[in-house]
Design a protein that fits this description.
This protein is of the alpha/beta class and 607 residues long. The chain has three domains: 3-234, Aminohydrolase, N-terminal nucleophile (Ntn) domain (Glutamine Phosphoribosylpyrophosphate, subunit 1, domain 1, 4-Layer Sandwich); 244-448, Rossmann fold (3-Layer(aba) Sandwich); 451-607, 3-Layer(aba) Sandwich (Rossmann fold). It is globular. The N and C termini lie close together (12 Å). The structure holds fructose -6-phosphate (F6R). Fructose -6-phosphate binds at residues 300-303, 347-349, 352, 355, 399-400, 483, 487, 603-604.
């Protein structure tokens, strides 16, 4: 989703801005732009990738300060005019904005009545004109932004550059903004890993914070007045250069990184001696785990699929009710919150607005939320201030892969921990832990010989739709497989618990319809095979993801993809991998942009 990068210092700003935008590219966007101050404010903006913007930039742009933006359209189409930065009419003020201004319609109307000619259809442009009114009436840059923000409702992460002042004004409310302090230079970005190559000294702005950046100083105040309590954090988590390590796409690289990422996630957390898991970031004492009435897990998209696996594992191992919730629905359904319950907010980016607002709702009602998060220091991680970092490392492809497996792994660790406290013996715990330790190696084994993925691709690539089926823990795996194929190859996909298929989706099946069946060797196996038969009887072609050695089931499939045998509880960590590879290869075959699928964003920071 929209990205912001800004710089003020002694170095040439333009190359830094363009590099900053490239680091934000993975978030998903449709246009980009920069403004550099060199006497006047020089704006360049263009629809398309950052490479399109680079093509129209002059060879050399003088100037040591500027701000830049990647836009994901909300108000107004994808056009050069609607791209940010937006300029005031006199060209003396430039603004970039993430978020949504709810009262933009009224503000735009009033500006037009005052004689302003708006050059875009965006909500953001209104802000720059309102700031210019303040400046003309003699207000300081900070005051003009402050007064403007008190007149708007909505969300913002914004930066403003002034021709007459050597500073950048920043403000945050609901859209992340991080400031970085280097030696004689300051930075701002909407994403910490656009900054880590420049400095480790970060200020994570809180909602309601405003800041003045000069090259030597960062001053943070509150929108309502007074000094902010936001202080500097030294971040040591180096996300490194976004390089592909020899892979043609980030998605493929990240699929192959899963064994290593999983090792990082479980390292030091498997407690063999006690047959349990160590999760130091959870503030949950054994007594609390024993008396907790229920567990609720909240997330979106892939994270929601991970939540659904987590809830089944928790319920099964700890014999305690567990429910997964769609984050975007949660707050608006006025949920009843039990302060004794455990809530998990699950998110790769830690910035998803829907999940963030669910966290706020739970906390507002006295509930306790733990984060299951990848990005260290992200908004949700800070807001929860307790939980589990999943340690996947940077995920650059829009389609989530290694974050999914590590979310699942983290939730399974929690299920083991709470289960061990409540229901099962040390021996049973030790046996699961022993199996868990083997999974990274089993993933490697599978990835070194992934089976007939090409044959599956042939069945799927020209299909009108694809049905994914699984039962128990494999039902959310089916959902994840369907989501992946749909989002990067644009093929309509449907995922159903296998037994539910005959209550509706079976009507879609015709001769040649591809059906992907997830069939680990668990208690559901026979029932899932029966559903597979029902599909075959209607002419469907079966792509079966099954346990190695299950020849009886394999013989009935059109394409059989074996994965190494493992404890059924851990099977989602293996069975999901072929679905990721199928999605990747189908998208390639169809000529889709695998890493940056259309219309999607990596970090969805608007509700
Ligand atoms: C799917 C995907 C999205 C995200 C969803 C939540 O591949 O990437 O469905 O999973 O937008 O994002 P996070 O986990 O950052 O909260």
């Amino acid at each position: 989703m929209c990205g912001i990068f800004g710089f003020i210092g002694n170095r040439s700003a333009a190359p830094l801005l363009v590099d900053g935008l490239r680091r934000l590219e993975y978030r998903g966007y449709d246009s980009s732009g920069i403004v550099v101050k060199n006497g006047s404010l020089q704006v360049h903006k263009k629809v398309g990738k950052v490479s399109e913007l680079s093509k129209i930039l002059p060879d050399h742009i003088e100037g040591n300060m500027g701000i830049a933006h990647t836009r994901w359209a909300t108000h107004g189409g994808v056009t050069d005019f609607n791209a940010h930065p937006h300029l005031s009419e006199d060209g003396n003020i430039a603004l970039v904005h993430n978020g949504i201004i709810d009262n933009a319609k009224g503000l735009r109307k009033r500006l037009q009545e005052r004689g302003f000619e708006l050059s875009s259809e965006t909500d953001s442009e209104a802000l720059v004109h309102m700031i210019s009114i303040g400046i003309e009436s003699g207000q300081s840059p900070l005051e003009s932004v402050r007064k403007t923000l008190t007149r708007i409702t909505g969300t913002w992460g914004l930066c403003v550059l002034f021709k007459e002042h050597d500073l950048i004004i920043c403000a945050r409310n609901g859209s992340p903004l991080i400031l970085g302090q280097g030696e004689g230079e300051s930075f701002v970005a909407s994403d910490p890993h656009a900054l880590t190559q420049h400095t480790q000294n970060f200020f994570f702005l809180e909602d309601g914070d405003m800041a003045i950046l000069t090259k030597d100083r960062i001053e943070i105040s509150r929108l309502e007045g007074g000094i902010s309590s936001t202080s500097m954090t030294v971040v040591e988590d180096e996300w490194g250069q976004a390089d592909m390590a020899g892979f043609p796409h980030f998605m493929l690289k990240e699929i192959h990184e899963q064994p290593e990422a999983l090792r990082r996630c479980i390292a030091g957390r498997l407690d063999m001696a006690n047959g349990s898991a160590k999760l130091g970031g959870l503030r949950l004492q054994p007594l609390r785990l024993r008396t907790v009435p229920h567990v609720r897990l909240i997330g979106c998209g892939t994270a929601l699929n991970a939540c659904n696996i987590g809830r089944l594992a928790i319920e099964s191992l700890a014999r305690i009710p567990a429910v997964a919730h769609v984050a975007s629905e949660f707050r608006y359904n006025d949920p009843v919150i039990n302060p004794n319950a455990i809530h998990f907010a699950v998110s790769q980016s830690g910035e998803t607005a829907d999940t963030l607002s669910a966290v706020k709702e739970i906390q507002l009602k006295g509930g306790d939320v733990h984060g299951i998060i990848n990005v260290v220091g992200s908004s949700i991680a800070r807001m929860c201030a307790q939980g589990v970092y999943i340690h996947s490392g940077p995920e650059q492809a829009v389609a989530s892969t290694k974050a999914f497996t590590n979310m699942v792994a983290s939730l399974l660790l929690f299920a083991i921990k709470i289960g061990r406290t409540r229901t099962f013996s040390r021996e049973k715990g030790q046996s699961i832990i022993k199996d868990f330790e083997k999974i990274p190696e089993l993933m490697e084994k599978y990835l070194s010989n992934p089976g007939p993925i090409d044959e599956a691709v042939e069945l799927v690539k020209n299909a009108k739709s694809v049905l994914f089926l699984g039962r128990g823990l494999s039902a959310p795996v089916a959902s994840e497989g369907a989501l992946k194929l749909m989002e990067i190859a644009y093929i309509p996909c449907l995922a159903y618990p296998a037994g539910e298929m005959k209550h509706g989706p079976i009507a879609l099946l015709e001769d040649g319809s591809p059906v992907v069946v997830i069939l680990p060797n668990d208690k559901h196996r026979q029932k899932t095979i029966a559903s597979m038969h029902e599909c075959r009887a209607r002419g469907a072609r079966i792509i079966l993801i099954h346990e190695e050695g299950d020849d009886e089931a394999a013989e009935e499939a059109d394409v059989s993809i074996p994965v190494p045998p493992c404890n059924y509880l851990l099977s989602p960590l293996l069975t999901v991998v072929p679905t990721q590879l199928i999605a990747y290869r189908v998208a390639l075959e169809l000529g889709c942009d695998v890493d940056r699928p259309r219309n999607l964003a990596k970090s969805v920071t608007v509700e």
